[in-house]
């Protein structure tokens, strides 16, 4: 299975997710895709198998993923301080991959019915969900 982790800005979501997946024993191929080089670099240092950067990398890898993970802003055009372009959001939303999206108030999104938890708890839940999909 190919897991694609997409992140923006400093890559903190993706870095933490990849570290926790590796610590949980996940040996699957993890592709780190950053909207910028800083995000990609952070995820590679966390243990990703390979990395790519930019809008086209997001579009191509979203279509090739079995599992796609990252912040919920990935499916909202112009989110993540403008780093998620409309084309990227569409590629993620249209991907046939199973999606594990992590809630974040940074994208000005509030999800009804979702408890207000620390980010680390949401990331740990994402790890649990990804491992269950493998």
Fold topology:
Elements (H helix, E strand, L loop, with lengths): L1 E6 L4 H12 L5 E6 L2 H9 L4 E4 L1 H10 L2 E5 L14 H9 L3 E5 L16 H15 L1
Parallel strand pairs: 1-2, 1-4, 2-3, 4-5
Helix pairs in contact: 1-2, 1-5, 3-4
Give me the number of helical elements.
5
Alpha carbon gyration radius: 13 Å
* End-to-end Cα distance: 7 Å
Structural class: alpha/beta
- What value does the average pLDDT take? 94
Strand fraction: 15-25%
The share of residues in helices is 40-55%
Q: How are the strands ordered across the major sheet?
A: 3-2-1-4-5
Tell me, briefly, the overall form: globular
How would you describe the overall organization of this protein?
The chain has a 5-stranded parallel beta sheet with strand order 3-2-1-4-5, sandwiched between helices. Helices cover about 40% and strands about 20% of the residues. It is of the alpha/beta class and about 130 residues long. It is built from 5 helices and 5 strands, in the order βαβαβαβαβα. α1 (about 10-25) runs parallel beside α2 (about 35-45) and α3 (about 55-65) packs parallel to α4. The chain starts with a strand and ends with a helix. The protein is globular, with a radius of gyration of 13 Å.
What are the main properties of this structure?
single chain; 134 residues; alpha/beta; globular
Question: What's this model, at a glance?
Answer:
The chain is an alpha/beta fold and 134 residues long. It has helices at 12-23, 37-45, 55-64, 86-94, 119-133; strands at residues 2-7, 29-34, 50-53, 67-71, 98-102.
